[in-house]
């Protein structure tokens, strides 16, 4: 596995792959790798000639009261995991390397961002589309892989790629879970023992909500989901919503492809989870 920290070197390498006609799979991450990230790598290595993973904790995605400095980091461990998983190139730029000057043009995500995490994290998805726009130009991937756990991010990125005609295919991979259903996340390490026992109820609540979707209204479904969370966890609910997907618009009843998503704040960790599914008509 080759480690690259320079934008120019990464671009030069990507250009060579393009001339050689090689397909490039790209897995953008913020590091502290877990099985969810490595599942994306597995998909890439099976489908593409070259797999590139980036590790970059993007400061533009964090608000003034969020956990940028506390975000877990372990680059040595990440390098071992990436190499073992089959990553060909690990791209690890510094913030100064990726953003050498104040950006003369700002990107603002205006669609699919006024619901779910976008409400409590203003500017977050602006940071996401900004860094991915740069990374897509630097890495020049054929395919980019994302986890469905961050379903709103996937929807926003799909909108970015479609609107600006990026020559990259976006592939979303199902959420990787612990044996008890908890979605794997870098932030799970901040759960107390009691919170770790409570956290699987997030997915249990979503699974129950999905079962109700065919014959109940959005209001009824959200009330039951909220009740499960409140009665079984000590977390504070940030949101629970059922929306169309990927457009993230309000709906009164489930129809077509929908998402039921939630975010719950525990003492030191904010957990998100969702289910996306399609109801057939008739």
From TrEMBL:
Task: Give the binding site residues for beta-alanine.
Answer: 61
Q: Which UniProt keywords apply?
A: ATP-binding, Cytoplasm, Ligase, Nucleotide-binding, Pantothenate biosynthesis
Q: Which domain of life is it from?
A: Bacteria
Annotated catalytic residues: 37 (proton donor)
Reaction equations catalysed = (R)-pantoate + beta-alanine + ATP = (R)-pantothenate + AMP + diphosphate + H(+)
Localization, per the record, is: Cytoplasm
- What EC number(s) does its UniProt record assign? 6.3.2.1
Q: Which family does it belong to?
A: Belongs to the pantothenate synthetase family.
NCBIfam families attached to this UniProt entry:
cyt_tran_rel, panC
Name the record gives this protein: Pantothenate synthetase
What organism does the record attribute this protein to?
Jeotgalibacillus soli
């Amino acid at each position: 596995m080759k480690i690259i920290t320079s934008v120019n070197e990464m671009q030069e390498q990507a250009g060579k792959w393009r001339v050689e006609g090689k397909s490039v799979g790209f897995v953008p991450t913020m590091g502290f790798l877990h099985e969810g990230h490595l599942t994306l790598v597995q998909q890439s290595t099976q489908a593409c000639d070259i797999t590139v993973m980036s590790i970059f904790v993007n400061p533009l995605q964090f608000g003034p009261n969020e956990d940028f400095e506390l975000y877990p980091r372990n680059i040595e461990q990440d390098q071992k995991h990436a190499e073992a998983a089959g990553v060909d190139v690990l791209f690890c730029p510094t913030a100064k390397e990726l953003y050498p000057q104040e950006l003369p043009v700002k990107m603002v995500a205006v669609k699919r961002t006024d619901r779910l995490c976008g409400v409590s994290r203003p500017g977050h998805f602006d940071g996401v589309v900004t860094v991915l726009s740069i990374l897509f130009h630097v890495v020049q991937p054929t395919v980019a892989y994302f986890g469905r756990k961050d379903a709103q991010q996937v929807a926003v990125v799909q909108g970015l790629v479609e609107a600006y005609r990026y020559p990259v295919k976006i592939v979303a991979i199902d959420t990787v879970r612990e044996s008890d259903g908890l979605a794997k996340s870098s932030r799970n390490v901040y759960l107390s023992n009691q919170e770790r026992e409570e956290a699987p109820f997030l997915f249990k609540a979503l699974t129950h909500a999905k079962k109700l979707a065919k014959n109940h209204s959005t209001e009824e479904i959200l009330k039951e989901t909220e009740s499960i969370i409140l009665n079984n966890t000590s977390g504070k609910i940030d949101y629970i919503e059922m929306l169309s997907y990927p457009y993230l618009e309000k709906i009164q009843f489930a129809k077509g492809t929908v998402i039921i998503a939630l975010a719950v704040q525990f003492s030191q960790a904010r957990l998100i989870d969702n289910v996306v599914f399609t109801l057939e008509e008739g």
